[in-house]
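Why do we bother with holo predictions? Because pocket geometry can differ from the apo form. Keep that in mind while you read this record for zinc ion.
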Amino acid sequence: MKVCSYCGSSRNIEDKHIRAKSKRGKTTTPACQACNRSKGNKTLMEWFRWLKKNEPYRWNRIKNYNKRKRTPIAEKVKKIMNKKSFKFLFY
Ligand SMILES: [Zn+2]
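The structure, written out:
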């Protein structure tokens, strides 16, 4: 069963380009429709910043889901979370 590589949901899974097509992304990763819609054309960094401000509930799910994972997405999530510029981002 496919699950969303961002939030772990198994509902409405689509294969999504990690980087938006418009930015020449080539790698695909399964993601749920809700994450896909929310991410849109944003890069991961842009999306997470946006989530923190606009969808803290989803951001928490993504954070918790990827904490113990070792997938390429999880590594990216952890890398972004550890960036100072991201950690100390207040709105
Ligand atoms: Zn998702």
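The chain has one domain: 13-82.
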